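Teaching assistant's notes for section 4

Start the section by putting this record on the projector. Ask students to predict, before seeing the second block, whether ABC transporter permease will look compact or extended. Collect guesses on the board.
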Amino acid sequence: MTDMLAQVLTLATLGVILAKTAPILLAAIGGGFTQVGGILNIGLEGMMLAGAFTGIAVGGVTNPFVGVLAAVGGAVLLALVYAVAALVLKADYTVVGIGINLLAAGGTVLLLNVLYGNAGATPGTVKSILPKIDLGVVGDIPVLGRLLDHQTPLVWLALLVVPAYWYLLYRTRFGVHLRAVGEDESAAVAAGIRVGRVRFTAILASGALCGLAGAQLAMSSVGSFNAGMTANRGFIAVAAIIFALGRPVPTLVACLVFGAADAVADRLTLGGLNSSLALLTPYVITVVALVVAAVRIRAAIRSRTRRALQHAPS
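Reveal the predicted structure now:
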């Protein structure tokens, strides 16, 4: 048991936590845009998967940075399908999200078969790995240096996205419109806000960030694509969104918790713990987070109802 704890509680684990957090955080911030706009986008998983596949497929024949751009393009294309189905054709958001996930799962397997003759994974000759940023002497700083050293550019981008998201929500006209649409659609329409355009933009932004998440997931270390490699991280991102209610800092905190659980699960597996039990850890934390979020939301609804009754005319 002591050896297992020593395997988990190391400085190297800190860097792994950040690398594991980055794709969940990027997807969660992307989903935060739609959540604030009144849409719970459960298609994050499919958009991440599309990004991961296109990133490897294109990056493997060009270079990793072109692969990242392709990953964004692939995910945005899927987000466009989501936006058209949900906003133009007026389909149910949840049903469309499920359809996007199924389309990505089946489509990537089909493309693996067509392009590489293997439904399970890309061949060993198709590799695309993002370079790591060497911080030099800064990397020798205790704890912080080990946390940030030798991370991909997308990890740094994920950290920068959080303040950018905060600024966009609370300091720009688009953010004001997005929050107005999510809080009261009828009032937003009365104020002259183009609800469809705002939500369309939010969905495309969600797809772009999910593409970056898929690229980080596929290209950070392995450099290849496996069918279903997102392994429900998109749904974990949805759990983080619900827990944080789309707010920037709480979303970061929730994603760090999930990333830490994922990293610890890997370390426990390396330490000899039953792999199935270790891999269960992130999902247990996800369920706990959703229960806590449900309790908070229910309490908020009761509080609003109580205030409304107190101010209602007798």
